[in-house]
Structure formats: C-alpha cells, structure tokens
Amino acid sequence: MGLLIEADLHTHTLVSNHAYSTLKENCASAAALGLKAIAMTDHSPGTPDGAHILHFINQRTLPRTVCDVTVLRGAEVNITDSTGALDMEERHLAPLEWVVASMHNRVMNDHTREGCTAAYLAVAENPLIDVIGHCTTDSFPFDMEPCLKKFKEYEKLVEINESSVVYRNGSLQNSIEVLRLCKRYEIPIVIDSDCHFCDLIGLVPAAEQLIEGTGFPKRLIINADWERVRKFVQKRHPGIDI
Ligand SMILES: [Zn+2]
Ligand SMILES: [Zn+2]
After folding, report:
1. What is the dotted CATH code of the domain comprising 7-236?
2. What is Dmax (Cα atoms) for the chain?
3. How far apart (Å, rounded) are the C-alpha atoms in residues 117 and 149?
4. Which of 7, 63, 133, 181 is 20 to 30 A distant from 171 in Cα terms?
5. How far away, in angstroms, is 102 Cα from ligand 1 center?
6. What's the CA-to-centroid distance between 12 and ligand 2, angstroms?
7. This prediction's pTM
C-alpha cells in the first residue's frame, strides 16, 4: 500500500513537555517512511507547556532539509476567543511557513457553538493562517457548513487529524461529517499525524479508513502530493527556497 501523504504538516517536538522527540528524530523517521517533507508545528506560548516565542523566531537558523526531508518552519497557534484572537503576534507569525490554528482546552475560553462559529469565521479571514487544525472535537462545536465554505473561500486548508480521531471525544464522527461536507463543496484538506513521538510521524491509518469509507477524492488531499504543498507555500511566500 502506498503512502497516503507525502508530507506530514502537523508535528511536535520536545520543546513542549508533552511531546517526546527532537526535530532530528522526527526527520529520521519521516525519511525512513519515505516522506518528502514535514512541518514542525509546535504549540504557541499560550499552551501551558508551549514553546517560548524564541523557538519560533529562531527557526530561520535551521537547515532547509534534515535527513533529506524538507522542514517547513511552523507553529500550532491557539485560537483563544470568539473574535478569532490568536496567542502569537502577527510579526512572529508572518515569517512562518506553515501555521496551523487550533482550539484547545485550557486556552480557548469559549466552548459555545455560537462562540466557536464566530471564532472560525473570523480566523478564516486571517491571511497568516494556512490550516484549520482538528476542528472535530466535541469540546468546540460549531456550524460546520458556513465555516467550511468560508475556509475554502479564504484558502484555508481543513485538517483531518489522526491523533484527534484516535484520542479525542467525538472526533471520529465529526471527522466523517467534515469529510462529507468537504467532498460535497470541493474543499481541500490535509491529513496529518499531529504526532508527539517520532515513531508516529506520517502514520495516519485511522484517517485513511475515513477517506476510504467516505469515498473522499484524493485530488482534494493537498498533502497527498508534495508538489501541491510546495505550490501552496510558494504562493504565500514568494521566493522561498523549497
Ligand atoms: Zn492541537
Ligand atoms: Zn498538535
């Protein structure tokens, strides 16, 4: 069976205490699996054990490839309230090459359907964000149809997140609904491991089952093809050396 994804665009390193591998370990695993690229997307400073802001600023000193795997410099930034506010400043997000925006317990202060819907509708318009991370947990209900349509309108990729499907309440059913709507409205997605340990990088078996079960078209899975990801990043960052 071929790999479903060529680039894992949501991965963590041990700069957060609840993750357990280094960037080099992640890249070595990615290379062994045959991935072409990863995005390093550690938690923004608002997460209780998130990375320090200097972690994000200093990523520019990293080599472009590690173990022959291209590394996109990124973050998983927190959506913190119903206005779509984020816990990183624009000047720190702007240089990053891959920004996943997610809602997390302990950080997002509004768990109502109205609040989460308003937050996503606002976040959709933020030009610094590339991906809407794991919008599939029961903790943060929202009106899927208008939000997903707006994500497409503003070229935000919708994430199907392996770790959420496996570990987070409601995420299996909600991911099926997201895929159903994305298929109907031709909304591009990414499938990511959200791994917190290197051995899990690039592995998305639960998501793969959902793709097959829903008959989701592969052409809408952007990271099934690294070239499509490259073009997406180059459009936002003209002149980038990838
Ligand atoms: Zn997350
Ligand atoms: Zn994550």
Report:
1. 3.20.20.140
2. 45
3. 12
4. 7
5. 6
6. 6
7. 0.97
Q: What b/e string do you get for 117-142 counting C-beta neighbours within 10 Å, with b at 16 or more?
A: bbbbbbbbebebbbbbbbbbbeebbb
Residues 126-177 have pLDDT tens digits of: 999 999 999 999 999 999 999 999 999 999 999 999 999 998 889 999 999 9
d(CA 11, CA 17): 14
**CB-based burial label for 54 (10 Å; 0-12, 13-18, 19+):** exposed
46-75 residue pLDDT tens: 999 999 999 999 999 999 999 999 999 999
State the DSSP code for 222. G
DSSP state of 68: T
Residue-level pLDDT at 168: 86
Contact by Cβ (8 Å): 43, 49: yes
Rounded to the nearest angstrom, the distance between the alpha carbon of 118 and the centre of ligand 2 is: 22
Cα–ligand 2 centroid distance for 51 (angstroms): 12
Report residue 166 as tokens.
């496996």
The number of beta carbons lying within 10 Å of the beta carbon of residue 146 is: 13
